[in-house]
Design a protein that fits this description.
The structure holds 2 protein chains of 2 kinds. Chain A is mostly helical. Chain A contains 4 helices and 3 strands. Chain B has a two-stranded antiparallel sheet. Classes of the chains: A mainly alpha, B mainly alpha. At the A-B interface, helix 2 and helix 3 of A face helix 3 and helix 5 of B.
């Protein structure tokens, strides 16, 4: 029988915050799919999957938080760039606040019980 | 570049095949620019697509999860959209409920309506009794139920229906699904019946004073009297018709009853009922007070010259004090 208790792993945590992470990396600069994936990995989210990022971009686009435009490329294939629109920035602000308060709560909870960071 | 366009196309096809259970539109949206994306991936580094991204089926599963139905605004099935619409409607209803509440002096309108529920149960019992009346007797919707013409039985029926409705009202929340649906359907029938019944009752009530021969009889101060050439009232008065050929009824049709106008004057059934002539008590042939052909009646000239059809016929003796007498 499988236990429902799991050890926290990054993949699990990522599921909850990948939207926020994608919105965050798009805030500084527009990007195309693979570029966004690379930025996320460079920021420390090495375990993020290609399909997860691609799927998340499609979902955020369908939700009206992103706009896209195509940039022709001479060397390789045309690139579809994603950029935050007003709704996306709004969502980023709200989700960001929520995450910070959640993280603070978790930090305080662990600190109180003597867990080193 | 080690990845060919052919490999990309094959990879995309396998991903699409793994998503074949999704609605076509959803699948197209998900994989719309997948080949461009894969070309980008391929351009950045060496190795086959499968080496770097895993099997297409695993990729499809991850894509489905990331973009899938759990997301807030992914491409969704019709069921989910309907559910979202329903939830939205419910939320709006709740908001309206809370907005109206303070106007009524309660936290929400539904709280106030819940207080009225027992009253509705009583009304529902009454309506059920009325429905039974209409169905069993074929009668029309009235104010009180009727059962075979007996008032006692009708009141008993009313009491039973009201008690049953209240009892049912208190039990309904504990009922299982189908009985509860049945109660709901029955209540719906009663509501429709009640609306139809009240509307027809209201119509009847309004039309009663608006037309019909009874109304004419009541409104007329007095129907005219009809006499023959000898001044005798006609026992078979002429029938009058309006320009459309409809008969005009004068006098009220209830020959045996006495109706009174609002000013207390009796309404005469004559000429509707010829036998109810007001001159019945008079001796045959010569009605005192009627315009008489005979120039020598027993009454005074004034009495015969100006007959008063509205008042009771003055007895002949009434004229006596008016004539010069030995007392003066």
């Amino acid at each position: 029988m499988r236990s429902s208790v799991r050890c926290v792993d990054t993949t699990q945590l990522l599921k909850g915050v990948l939207d926020l992470a994608v919105l965050a990396v798009l805030r500084e600069e527009d990007g195309y799919g693979y570029d966004i994936l690379r930025r996320l990995r460079e920021a420390g989210l090495e375990e993020v999957g290609d399909a997860s990022v691609y799927g998340t971009l499609r979902r955020l686009f369908a939700a009206g938080l992103l706009t896209t435009y195509v940039v022709p490329s001479e060397s390789g294939p045309h690139r579809k760039y994603y950029s935050l629109n007003a709704a996306g920035r709004d969502q980023l602000t709200r989700s960001g606040k929520l995450w910070r308060s959640f993280a603070t709560t978790m930090d305080a909870l662990l600190d109180d019980r003597g867990m080193a960071a | 570049m080690t990845v060919t366009g052919q490999e990309i196309t094959a990879y995309v096809e396998r991903v699409r095949a793994a998503l074949a259970d999704l609605p076509p539109q959803t699948r197209d949206e998900l994989t719309e620019d997948l080949s461009e994306h894969l070309a980008e991936v391929a351009a950045e580094a060496d190795g086959s697509l499968v080496d770097r991204l895993g099997e297409p089926e695993a990729y499809a599963a991850e894509l489905r999860a990331a973009a899938g139905a759990t997301g807030p605004a992914s491409a969704r099935s019709l069921d989910q959209r309907a559910a979202t619409l329903l939830a939205g409607a419910r939320a709006r209803l709740r908001a309206t409920d809370r907005r109206i509440g303070p106007v009524l002096g309660y936290a929400s309108a539904s709280e106030y309506l819940r207080l009225l529920r027992p009253a509705w149960w009583v009304l529902r019992g009454y309506l059920a009794a009325m429905l039974i009346t209409v169905v069993t007797t074929g009668g029309s919707f009235g104010l009180l139920p009727r059962l075979g013409g007996s008032t006692l039985a009708a009141l008993l029926l009313l009491a039973v229906c009201v008690v049953a409705s209240v009892w049912l009202g208190r039990r309904t929340p504990q009922l299982s699904r189908w009985p509860r649906l049945a109660v709901g359907a029955g209540t719906g029938v009663l509501v429709v019946f009640a609306l139809a019944g009240f509307v027809s009752l209201d119509d009847e009530q309004r039309n009663w004073t608006g037309g019909g021969h009874e109304a004419i009889a009541v409104q007329q101060p007095h129907p005219p009297d009809f006499y023959d050439s000898q001044g005798r009232p006609l026992l078979n008065p002429p029938r009058l018709f309006d320009q459309d050929g409809n008969p005009i009824w004068l006098g009220h049709p209830a020959c045996d009853e006495v109706l009174y106008r609002s000013d207390g004057q009796p309404v005469r059934p004559y000429p509707y009922c010829p036998e109810q002539t007001p001159f019945r008590s008079a001796p045959q042939g010569s009605a005192p007070g009627a315009p008489a052909a005979d120039p020598t009646p027993s009454g005074t000239p004034t009495a015969s010259a100006s007959p008063d059809p509205s008042g009771p016929v003055p007895p002949p003796t009434e004229s006596v004090p008016a004539s010069p007498g030995p007392t003066s």
